[in-house]
Queue: 2 jobs
Job 1
Amino acid sequence: MAFRPIANTRSASGIPTAKLATWWVVGSEIVIFGGLLASYIMHRLAHDAWSEQAAHTNVYIGLFNTFVLLSSSLSAVLAHKAAEEGNGAKAAKLLYYTMGGALIFVLVKSAEWTMEITHGFTITSSTFWSFYYTAAGLHAVHVIAGAIIMGIVAADAKKNQELHRVELIGIYWHFVDIVWIFLFPLLYIAK
Amino acid sequence: MLEKFFDDGHGHTSYVKVWVLLLVLLLISFVGPFLEIQAVTLITAFGIAVVKAFIVAKYFMHITMEKRFVTYIMVTLLVFMFLFFAGTAPDVMKHEGSGWEKPAWKAELTATHDGHGGHEADHH
């Protein structure tokens, strides 16, 4: 006998528990990334020499990856719309597009890091580069995790099952996008 | 105003229009620093980042369509983040205070101002 997960059906707060849990994940991520970025900002403001290090990051790569993530967010929200219309196949297809965006993002980031490391800018080069690799790396881990979960959600959505999860993975994905929206000016624009 | 701009003509949000606006804002934040005016860079880079984050939260995450307490939770956690920042910033950003100082950092700052160094200051 199969059991339905109660976390998807109970609704004491007026919000389905799975969605509430997703928002709590986002809330905890605000503190995780917020703390990291706040630390970066206060160190950056205190040390003028960081701008010399930041000058070595490639703004065009940052710009391209921002474009990729914003576009992947578009396909994620369109997948949510398709799921609300009951069109699981379309939702799955759009989630696959989002996963494609995640793949491009990670590949570009890998190439960028390879380039930087071969130029001698490693995680131990200076505190700026430690923050750079930690912040961008933590973000990339979230991109990879999101893409994997999205694959699982898309596989179900294709069979018109568990369509509510399309919205939940979308909420998470948009948050990952928001984090990058702040990382882009901090790591690439402010020289 | 944004609601009207994003309307798809059938009373729904056009997500493609939202995406286009986000891309326009991205381009502005990219072009801003080329003017080499610090105030403009701060506004185009960080001011626009806040606007973009708001647009994504509202139109892609639909946070305003959730129960009000979801927004309250997010805002509370943001406030906590700023409290953490305010609590630790003086220790990180000052090289001396009431009853404490960071002699190594002060020495490097002095060396920087004397033109004898400056590349090591970022190791703190």
Note: Residues 24 and 104 of chain B are 45 Å apart (CA to CA).
Job 2
Amino acid sequence: MNFFVLSLIKTALVAAVLLTTLAYLQWIERKVLAHIQLRPGPYRVGPHGLLQPLADVIKLVIKEGVIPANANLFFYLLAPILAVSLALTSISVIPFGPQVEVFGIKTNMELAGLDVGVLFVLAVSSLGVYGIAIGGWASNSKYSLMGGLRSSAQMVSYELPMALAIVSPLLLANSLSFREIVDAQAGFWFGIIPKWNVFAGPFPQLLSFVIFLIAAFAETNRIPFDLPEAEAELVAGFHTEYSSMGFASFFMAEYANILTVCCVASLLFLGGWQPLWPSASGSDFVPPALFAGAGLMLLFHAAQAIRARKWDRFSFPVFGVLFLALAALFLVPALKPVLVPLFWFVAKVGILVFVFIWVRGTLPRFRYDQLMRFAWTALFPLAVLNLLITGLIVALAS
Amino acid sequence: MLALPAQVPLSWYLILSAVLFATGAAGFLLRRNIITVFMCIELMLNAVNLSFVTFSHKLGKVDGHIFSFFVMVVAAAEAAVGLAIILTVFKNRATLEVDEISSMKL
Amino acid sequence: MDAILFLIFAAIALGCAINVVLQSHPISSALSLVGVMVALAVLYLLLGGPFIAAVQVIVYAGAIMVLFTFTIMLLNTGAESRPRRQALHTAIALPLVFSLAGLISYLAARQADSSSVVTFGGFTRGDPHTFGIALFTTYLLPFEVTSILILIAIVGAVVLAKKEI
């Protein structure tokens, strides 16, 4: 098939899935946080608040976009556009699965397979700071300016340990392409432990994985490193003066960044779409078993629905059947080579995203001087040490 | 309507580099704000980098890329020291206009 | 296709470069300069240098220019004043600069033989592998010297930022 048409179809597919995921990430975050704090979370709009993202979008779109007095109008409007477009750009080089053949068409499960994909993601994410810094400056407000200043210093500082942590898996795979890095992590030690970089012998990349995750929290301005928007000190930091679509764009950019760093982390350290144990031992049947189990559980609860929650008498059977249908999809031979790797990849990314939300519900915020000291005196030397050991091992092995 | 060549002549890149360099030089001569003057120097360095990479393409060697890599490293070091100097100057004189920072003593 | 891409990104680079000089507020200049750097990175890609293009964006646009924006935002001095002598300076400087650009362009166009063209994919030695091997064999000494230079710069910046001078 025509390369152009194929790319167009893939782009449309990825864009649709990505934007829906971004909208629902916010719902998931609110639900998880609520359950951590023993609350039900959003419940009113749709069954279990499932239509909440839609309601939020409508609310944000029809709100008035206030432009503060004496704001630099051009930069004020440019900043959220810059933030969200840069955040969405990185996804284009992330592969979601191996080369697959669907209906006789061979294609890679990615939008653009760059030889220097890792560098591309690093380059785009290093530009991401401009959206926040410019937004903070252009708002003409002291809180915004403080947020913008903090964010630019913080993101430049944490980019160093992040880049150094990324180098170790690159060294092990001897490549800068995500696809080759994932391919290098295929196989199993003793036929059971996956050869992912976090389990790589003789020197597991656990340390660099942890450093990468910590730096990723700082890069995406999440708790415990959300100093640029610390609401206790700075009202809302760099987006204090933004309302309506400007605020929505910054919000979306944050979730897109979280998704990107989780994808990168699972590709570089957790073996991307490589399964947890060999498919010879039945790892292909994990997704259908999981989905079937979830569906059956919902159907079981539907049979004895709680009277107070009227919605559940409708939603439980519907979602139960939906999950059973999903489980059946994984058993179709034509779709299996596409869906099973995709499942493993999405599962790893999902777990990492859950960790992001979990940490938000658990940890308090750092003080600013602690944040900077931590980056330069703890994280950076550790990353250098890890890189030295990895380099030595790679040099000795070759 | 000028017909576009199928392939870009090497001289186009060199001319672009020359024009960028001259723009940077103009900014260096005309602007008053130290930081802007500094940025115009960076613009000139960038123009030179473009020439290096173009020559690399012409010669079929990677050396030009390495030269521009070193230019970037030196520019990073220069920016760190230069901006520290600018901060100190601003702390002592409360201005960034180059004309007003002409005396050696306060 | 190559020519169209070149013209688009050359126009962006040139427009942003002129904007760097014309804008009166330093932060506008800084962002225009980021535009120049990103456009130049695309031109490096066209010239067959994916690694140097990535380094250009990561180091120049993502680190050095962030430092500039940070300083500008920190000092927050506002737009630059335009003294009256400015017109005279412009009148003298602009012809000189235009003749400089014209001279270099003329020489470049004359020296480069008309047969030499830039083809996308015609130069593949700009990949990270070749780059790394050249950097750590032929250019090992300059590489080590730059590390000392950076150390000096770090010490210098710390000393300047710390004390009252």
Note: The longest helix of chain A spans residues 3-36.
